Sequence to fold (67 residues):
Amino acid sequence: MAGVASIVFGILLFIAPVIGAVVLTWWIGAYAVAFGILLLVLGFKLHGKKADNAAKTPPAADAATKA
Fold:
């Protein structure tokens, strides 16, 4: 399927390169926006996990003085 799609896309770029370049730019832009949003969501989730883990574990200095 991917090979057929690549061939069709290549033929369309050959026939109308300006339209193909514009569409390719839109796809790259949409990918960048979606990937950026996903990275932000992942970053906030990881930050929340870090805060949860920090609240559960005692500080290292307290553990060393008790031993």
